[in-house]
Specification:
heterodimer; A: alpha/beta; 4-stranded mixed beta sheet; flat; B: alpha/beta; 3-stranded parallel beta sheet; about 35% helix
Chain lengths: ~425, ~120
């Protein structure tokens, strides 16, 4: 923009902003740091912060800001051209397995659990799972939009698939996941989770599970494909470095295998389409779909009247971004079809979106104009404002562009279901990577 | 109760065990493994904008990108108190923290001489 700028940053983001300014080509950006957090602090506290010293440099904040705008530029700050990155050799220096395992752990190339070391022989074996050339570019991935995107090849994905313990026949699914460019470790202070759902013939071909215990630690395909996504996101997507490219305050346990499972297509009620068909693919195509969200809750009841229970269960997610994905056990799906006449997933989704209310607290927080009307006695707002604490305002926050998604999964031992604040991000052809 | 003889035999046993262990480690085969890392793009260096020789008579924008409403106004207030010869303008960037605001950037480029921007929360 050509205007001298002094960025002022809360101390907690020191590593992040230094890393980003380096990657954006301004490695000497003149930052001033202040105590963290400042959001939600009263003005008098903030005033004292401004009059205090930078907790990183120890200099007075005001003087540091002024110097950032007025001190003449150094030769380094005026530099143009390109900066060399450390070379990335295809092979690491030969060493013992013990030492290499230590290196992987020390460098943060694992998910904290021991990995299978990607020897040339193992990677060559893995590559038998695809017809694509090892040096073909699969795509790029970044931890979040401000970060740079890293590029990677088929062989690099295969190396990470080996590390995850995957079998060669799983590789097309992992390549398809990687090709979406969607990281499983999104860089945000909120701790994002991800979900990966497989559809089509690949489910049976590689024994992915959509049945009993599908979301548990049982199916090697579910477990290792989901795990590979996180290793790919760290090692090929440039993510997962704490403080720099990962900032989720509490982290998400779901990132260990990213809720990876198959839809139980053979137990869908008649008229209910598999998820990939809903998204425009043919039933005979194999597809992996990615979802983003944060959490899941378990709910249900011994009844055939599920829609009201589902509606109530998803209420905590019915505000703000208003995104919900339902993972219905086949029993629940069939009950909804047989007893509550939802002939398609879309009908159920539309009914829920129309009838879901918004928690009153969130509604009034984001509808200031309506709040003023309510206080002035304008109906129906005035009546809604009188609802007891914890009530829901009968206004749906859901928008057509983020429909409630429905996946059928489970082993039919209970009429239960899972509700998550997830939305569909992308779907990719697995067949393309065979 | 351990006798000195017992302790001596225990020491010999331990020494053999450790030596055997070191031997096994030394015999571990060397392996070649693939680098599991992707390729970062080259970095194009961007020169920083020339600085001001003085703040006097200049218009400085203080921009809040969207985290909290109290901190950046105080930055503006304290600077205005300490540097009254400059014109300190507080602005809240449109949208959430990840939304662009080209209108504001155009305004700053046209009317401003410098900017302080708050990042983080």
């Amino acid at each position: 923009m050509g205007v001298p700028t002094a960025p002022v940053v809360t101390q907690r983001f020191l590593e992040l902003v230094k890393t980003i300014s380096y990657k954006k080509g301004m490695p000497k950006q003149r930052f001033t740091f202040v105590p963290h957090p400042v959001a939600g602090r009263p003005p008098e506290v903030c005033n004292q912060f401004v009059r205090s010293k930078d907790p990183v440099t120890g200099k007075a904040i005001v003087e540091e800001l002024v110097a950032a705008l007025t001190a003449p530029l150094t030769a380094e700050e005026k530099k143009t051209g390109f900066m060399l990155r450390p070379p990335q050799p295809r092979l690491l220096e030969p060493d013992t397995p013990t030492n290499r395992a230590r290196l992987f752990e020390k460098n943060g190339w694992t998910d904290g659990i021991p990995v299978i070391l990607p020897t040339e022989a193992r990677v060559a074996e893995m590559l038998k799972g695809t017809s694509h050339e090892p040096n073909e570019i699969v795509g790029t991935m970044r931890p979040s939009p401000p970060h740079e995107a890293w590029e990677f090849t088929v062989e690099m994905v295969a190396a990470n698939a080996v590390m995850a313990g995957a079998k060669p026949e799983y590789l097309p699914v992992i390549l398809a996941l990687a090709s979406t460019g969607v990281t499983s470790l999104f860089s945000s202070t909120t701790s994002f989770a991800r979900m990966a759902v497989a559809n089509g013939p690949i489910i049976e071909q590689i024994n992915m599970s959509g049945g009993l215990g599908a979301l548990g630690p049982f199916s090697p395909a579910n477990a290792t494909i989901g795990r590979a996504w996180t290793l790919v996101s760290k090692n090929l997507g440039g993510g997962g470095t704490l403080g720099e490219t990962y900032l989720g305050s509490q982290g998400s346990n779901l990132n260990y295998n990213n809720l990876c499972f198959a839809e139980k297509e053979d137990r869908l009620p008649s008229g209910w389409k598999p998820f990939h068909v809903q998204k425009g693919y043919k039933p005979g195509e194999s597809v992996i779909s990615t979802f983003t969200g944060w959490s899941i809750i378990h709910s249900g009841g011994f009844t055939t009247q599920h829609k009201e229970i589902i509606k109530r269960s998803m209420m905590p997610f019915a505000s703000g971004r208003a995104q919900v994905t339902l993972l219905l056990d086949p029993i629940v799906a069939h009950d909804l079809k047989d007893y509550q006449e939802f002939g398609t997933k879309e009908q159920l989704s539309e009914w829920l979106m129309k009838n879901a209310g918004t928690p009153a607290l969130q509604y009034w927080g984001s509808h200031r104009e309506e709040l003023q009307k309510a206080k002035a006695g304008v109906e129906p707002y005035a009546s809604w404002l009188k609802y007891p604490e914890g009530s829901y305002v009968p206004v749906s926050s859901f928008k057509p562009e983020t429909p409630i998604e429905i996946i059928v999964v489970g082993g039919e031992t209970n009429p239960f279901f899972l509700v998550g604040d997830f939305r569909h991000v992308s779907s990719a052809s697995v067949d393309k990577w065979r | 109760m351990k006798t000195p003889a017992c302790r001596a035999w225990a020491g010999v046993f331990l020494a053999f065990t450790l030596l055997a262990g070191f031997g096994a480690a030394a015999e571990e085969d060397m392996i070649s493994i693939l680098n599991p890392r992707g390729t970062p793009p080259p970095i194009r260096l961007v020169p920083m904008a020339p600085r001001l020789d003085t703040l006097d008579g200049k218009t400085i924008y203080v921009v809040n990108i969207g985290f909290g409403d109290t901190f950046l106004p105080e930055v503006r207030n304290v600077l205005a108190e300490k540097y009254p010869k400059a014109d300190w303008v507080f602005k809240r960037k449109a949208g959430s923290y990840f939304d662009d605001d080209p209108k504001l950037w155009a305004e700053i480029k046209e009317k401003g001489n410098a900017m302080i921007m708050g990042v983080g929360h």
